[in-house]
Amino acid sequence: QVQLVESGGGLVQPGGSLSLSCVASGSFSNLAMAWFRQAPGTNREFVAAITWISSTTDYSVSVMGRFTISRDNAKKTLYLKMNSLKPEDTAVYYCAAAHNAKNYYTDAHRYPYWGRGTQVTVSS
Fold this sequence. Notes:
The chain contains no helices and 11 strands. The chain has strands spanning about 1-5, 10, 20-25, 30-40, 45-50, 55-60, 65-70, 75-80, 90-100, 115, 120. The chain is globular, with a radius of gyration of 13 Å. By secondary structure, the protein is mostly beta strands.
């Protein structure tokens, strides 16, 4: 079993930056990790993912060039650095994990482990 706890959300002005963390308990080995987000009235949306074996990353078009996903396997922690934030980035951000040593998924249904989410609000 894997438990995930996100932190780092908050209120930030447009153009600002915010860093999210997701700490895992249980086994962190061979886990593909990802960030998703969900705004009110919308479906959960893929944001970024990272593999276990090579730390290969992928991003949605809407965040590419502004967000950076990374992981520290020794600390069992996943990160999301968010720069140049826009009001449309406002959402609850979720950390997700799946047992896959070589690849990642962009489909939320492929991830069996989820955190409870952290709210990010971008507003002046």
